[in-house]
Design goal:
Elements lengths: L1 H19 L12 E8 L10 E6 L5 E5 L5 E7 L2 E8 L5 E9 L4 E3 L2 E2 L8 E4 L13 E6 H6 L17 E2 L6 E2 L7 E5 L2 E2 L21 E9 L11 E7 L7 E9 L19 E14 L3 E14 L2 E4 L4 H4 L22 E2 L5 E2 L15 H8 L14 E3 L2 E3 L2 E4 L2 E17 L2 E12 L24 E15 L2 E16 L8 H5 L11 E3 L22 E18 L2 E17 L7 E4 L13 H7 L1 E10 L2 E2 L1 E15 L4 E12 L3 E2 L6 E7 L6 E5 L13 E12 L2 E8 L18 E7 L9 E2 L12
Parallel strand pairs: 1-7, 1-8, 6-9, 13-16, 30-33
Antiparallel strand pairs: 1-4, 2-3, 2-5, 5-6, 10-15, 11-12, 13-14, 15-16, 17-18, 18-19, 19-26, 20-25, 21-22, 23-24, 26-27, 27-28, 28-29, 29-31, 31-32, 32-35, 32-36, 33-34, 34-43, 34-44, 36-37, 36-38, 37-41, 39-40, 41-42
Length: 769
């Protein structure tokens, strides 16, 4: 068996070596349960050398322990479930306790009194063991598998379970525990981080969510975490997965909502008339590969949704498309539209422009690019179906009311294998894949031409996770566990407009074919204005983000007298790969119809019709953002059974992280003492090739707690803990702005003239790198 362990352990380390270069994450908390207690005789005297056998009633997996000289035993790394526990000692009757429920992350205290007699005699107790956790100061809330499938979890997204826990609030974020920040909360599955690597976020398509029916239990820990728990500011949600048993089990379920079953939102005037369907399907099967030895679990879940809701947006009216900006429906005078070509410098200083008669632009003044764009039939026609339209000095607003359309498809897959080499050696492995195939949002109803819609580009997201745990009983009082895993999240967005030379289709000269030109406005006068666009959001550029992390952890548990020592080491590797979104075909902001330096004049859509560009920006990505860092952690924990009713939890955790750096040293950092290379002034950007900060090595985290079982059904808990948070990036591509080359075409400050006419195109674009 020692040779077998050597082969298995070697294979695990070789697998880890491969995973480090592909990305993985494992966190110190194992997510499994522990059974401990003391064995005495009828007089209360402790009994050493009692053979304790813990047997999983579903799988037949056995775990063996022996009481020490203090009569104490401890069995860690138990999967959640029901167990049978037997106690044997010479001169005493054999005791069998069945129906003992072990829960994830909990330490169950089970004290036994043996009766004098022959070992062939036995006393069997079938009642369930106490579920009161008496050995730890940590507080939290547990949701069993039955409760998990009974309680409503919106769209079967497991992260929504945190709202059932006291001390969790949703104010200003997706979840705060015990007063901590959102990213101070940690979510793990079988002890492996389930949040987005490097960013630490929880939410749809952020944390990995697969098959709810494959999950055994959820335990949310809120305060006084032991030293083995890290990467959290105080709150941890641990999800334990089921495994196969000696019996075959299977299920299939569909949750369906039809259009006739929905009602309108409180803010909608009527039930949406667009298409609607909602299917939430799941199935799994589990059973033995070899009875009492090897088991499997396979699960599948599918979220299939097509839905929409009422939306009111702005579109140009037929009068505006014809060049009429008089807006007689407005109670206030319309903003005056000036002719950009009439700009003159006044003798006494300042500038002036001549207004268009009647606020109407002659059609022969329309720019050829504007005419080609309008010939593509980009806009939906206006309506006033809910009497929602209103006018002001800038024109009609909310003059289109329609039902949106959104498609959302999410698929989760789990596979898990459990195997017992012997009662001293066990291993399990799980692979999970969350596959998201959803749109970027709801279709922009203001568009009649979907080629121009940002939402037309899907955002496929693939999240994968692997966890492997190998535990070995070195002797009845010493147990070691090695745990490793893998996390990877990949988001891709590839608009179909890439490389299609839309600038030439619009008739814009001197512009490359890479992306679709974006038309926008510096003036945010549109009710539905987003990202500086006018009326709608264009497809934009390519996006590619990959988040990975990798880790190896070793945990050693030892029982010595009344002390249970646990110590461990963890090494964690995090790296990100983010492609800078570039817009080499340009973003064009329109102006020129305003009176120089005078607010409440002009109109950006009038400027677009005239093709007068006030400013244009062109960007090109010069590098890919590749930050990476290492994390090391050590911990020591002593659970001291000071008295029969009092347990002290004493621990210390230390963690350090290598300073953040990019793979090829491509990073920038502002220094107030540097000299700017362009202006010669004080304060400029530096390009350090090494880390951006010094290493922090003083992250010592003491953990002190106590659990006092002063009455049979009462426990008093108290604790103190110092927690340090992981190194997260505040946002993708930070300290990297310089590697997105920017060329701007705009007049110098103080000159109100336009930059160029759209049909003539910008001057040759040069990136001064």
């Amino acid at each position: 068996m020692v040779r077998l362990l050597g082969r298995v352990s070697l294979s695990l380390f070789l697998l880890f070596g491969a995973l480090v270069f592909s990305g993985a994450a494992v966190y110190a908390q194992t997510g499994q349960g522990t059974l401990t207690g003391s064995v005495t005789d009828s007089s209360g005297a402790v009994i050493p050398s009692v053979a304790v056998v813990v047997k999983n009633q579903s799988t037949g997996f056995t775990y063996e322990a022996v009481t020490n000289q203090e009569g104490i035993y401890r069995v860690p790394y138990l999967n959640a479930g029901l167990y049978e526990v037997s106690y044997e000692a010479t001169g005493f009757r054999r005791m069998v306790r069945s129906g003992v429920q072990i829960r994830s992350t909990e330490t169950l205290g089970l004290d036994i009194s043996l009766e004098v007699g022959n070992v062939v005699e036995s006393v069997e107790v079938s009642a369930g063991a106490q579920l009161l956790e008496t050995e730890t100061s940590t507080t939290g809330h547990l949701v069993s598998g039955v409760e998990l499938t009974t309680l409503p979890t919106p769209q079967m997204k497991i992260e929504s379970m945190i709202w059932y826990v006291a001390g969790v609030t949703s104010q200003s974020g997706p979840g705060h525990t015990a007063g901590g920040r959102t990213r101070a909360f940690q979510m793990t599955t079988d002890g492996v981080s389930a949040t987005n690597p490097g960013e630490g976020t929880v939410g749809t398509a952020r944390n990995i969510t697969t098959v709810e029916h494959d999950m055994q239990e959820i335990k949310v820990l809120t305060t006084a975490l032991p030293a083995e728990y890290g990467h959290s500011g105080g709150g941890i949600m641990n999800i334990s997965y089921k495994g196969g048993t000696n019996e075959f089990h299977g299920l299939a379920e569909e949750r369906y909502v039809g259009k006739k079953m929905i009602h309108r939102s409180w803010s909608d005037p009527a039930v949406p008339t667009g298409p609607f369907s909602f299917h939430l399907m799941s199935a799994n099967i589990s059973g033995p590969i070899k009875r009492n030895k090897t088991f499997f679990l396979v699960g599948w879940q599918r979220h299939h949704e097509r839905s929409g809701n009422n939306m009111d947006v702005d579109v140009p009216s037929p009068a505006m498309l014809a060049g009429d900006f008089s807006f007689p429906q407005s109670s206030a005078p319309a903003d005056i539209i000036y002719d950009p070509d009439s700009l003159v410098a006044l003798p006494g200083g300042g500038y002036s422009r001549t207004p268009f008669p009647g606020n109407r632009i002659p059609r022969d003044r329309f720019d050829p690019v504007a005419l080609k764009f309008l010939s593509l039939n980009p806009f939906s026609g206006e309506n006033n179906r809910n009497n929602q339209t209103f006018y002001n000095r800038t024109g009609p607003h909310l003059n289109l009311s329609a039902d949106t359309d959104k498609n959302s498809y999410r698929t989760g897959i789990d596979t898990k294998i459990d195997h017992m080499f012997s009662s001293n050696h066990k291993i399990f492995g799980r692979y999970s894949n969350a596959r998201h195939r959803s749109m970027s949002g709801t279709w922009q109803i203001q568009l009649a031409n979907r080629d121009l819609d940002y939402i037309g580009a899907p955002i496929p997201i693939d999240q994968r996770q692997i966890v492997i745990s190998d535990s070995y009983v070195i002797n009845p009082r010493t147990i070691n566990e090695v745990r490793l895993g893998w996390n990877r999240r990949k988001l891709t967005r590839l608009p179909e407009s890439l490389g299609e030379n839309w600038a030439a289709k619009f008739g814009i000269h001197n512009v490359g074919p890479e992306t679709m030109p974006i038309f926008g406005s510096a003036a945010s006068i549109f009710t539905s204005n987003t990202s500086g666009n006018f009326y709608f959001r264009f497809p934009e550029g390519e996006t590619l983000d990959v988040n990975e992390n990798a880790s190896l952890q070793d945990n050693l548990s030892m029982i010595r007298g009344k002390h249970t020592f646990k110590t461990g080491y963890e090494i964690l590797r995090t790296r990100l790969n983010s492609h800078l979104e570039q817009r080499p075909s340009g973003t064009y902001l329109f102006g020129g119809t305003e009176f120089p330096f005078t607010p409440n004049t002009g109109h950006p859509f009038a400027s677009f019709l005239l093709g007068t560009v006030a400013a244009a920006e062109f960007t090109r990505a010069l590098a890919t953002w590749l930050p990476q860092w290492w994390s090391h952690a050590l911990y020591f924990q002593d659970d001291w059974k000071a008295t029969k009713n009092l347990t002290l939890n004493l621990g210390l955790r230390w963690q350090t992280e290598s300073p953040y750096r990019s793979k090829y040293g491509q990073q920038s950092q502002f220094s107030p003492n540097a000299t700017d290379s362009l202006t010669g002034g004080r304060g400029g950007l530096l390009h350090p090739t090494g880390p951006l900060a010094s290493r922090d090595t003083n992250n010592f985290q003491p953990r002190v707690g106590m659990a006092y079982n002063f009455r049979e059904n009462w426990v008093f808990r108290g604790g103190f803990a110092v927690n340090t948070l992981d190194l997260w990036v505040n946002s993708l591509r930070e300290n990297f702005e310089e590697y997105l080359a920017l060329a701007a075409v705009v007049q110098l400050p103080g000159n109100p003239d336009i930059a160029f006419k759209l049909s003539k195109g910008p001057p040759p674009i040069n990136f001064n790198i």
